Amino acid sequence: MHEMPVLALSHCILNRSTRWWQKGKPIEKNRGVTIQILNMAARLGIGIIQLPCPEFTFCGNPRPPRTKDEYLKLPGFREHCKKLAEEAAEELMHLVKNAREPRIKILAVVGVERSPTCGVKCTPIRKGSLKRYIEEEGVFISMLNESLKKRGMHIPFIGVDLDKPEELVEAIDRLL
After folding, report:
1. Cα 124–chain centre separation
2. Cβ atoms of 45 and 102 closer than 8 Å
3. Among candidates 120, 170, 152, which has minimal Cα distance to 9?
4. How many other C-beta atoms are found inside a 10 Å radius of the C-beta of residue 165?
């Protein structure tokens, strides 16, 4: 039976306009890694699912840069992330469950490192007046991982550094 690999991508990987806009950063850096990801997916025959952006759907743009702990202090943000995580996990579960030919295999969930919501292994926190990065999942990624496991889905999570898209391509090659 034929199996179609699919990646579930953090929203801003394909739609950079939802990301916190870095004023003063060269326009090329603000555009993101869309073309590299699409080229890789086309070359390897991988499907793509775009996950929701909890920061944009809750705060819009422009919005101030925040750390994980600052987002968690926003009234209603935790509940917003939980709702989005449950909906995304349901969608992924139904894709796998309802695909008969070809079967769908969720290859990985791809988060964005240094994001307070979508970081996989690198998330910003605030300690006093200093912002620092810790090895921890972001708010949404943590809840999505929990929601998937609750449904019996054990999917690898990969963090991409938007400044180094080649590392994602290498990680996907290893999964295949």
Report:
1. 15
2. no
3. 120
4. 19
Q: Which residue has 């390897």 as its token pair?
A: 44
pLDDT in tens, 130-170: 999 999 999 999 999 999 999 999 999 999 988 887 788 78
Interval 96-108: pLDDT, tens: 999 988 999 999 9
Of 117, 115, 112, 108, the closest CA to residue 48 belongs to 108
Beta strands 123-127; 47-50: pairing state: unpaired
Q: Which domain holds residue 157?
A: 3-175
Residue by residue, what is the 3-state secondary structure of the chain?
Answer: CCEEEEEEECHHHHCHHHCCCCCCCCHHHHHCCHHHHHHHHHHHCCEEEECCCHHHHHHCCCCCCCCHHHHHHCCCHHHHHHHHHHHHHHHHHHHHHHCCCCEEEEEEEEEECCCCCCCCCCEEEEECCEEEEECCCCHHHHHHHHHHHHCCCCCCEEEECCCCHHHHHHHHHHHC
Q: Which residues pair with 108 in a beta bridge?
A: 7
Both structure tokens of 145: 């991982």
- The number of distinct structural domains making up the chain is 1
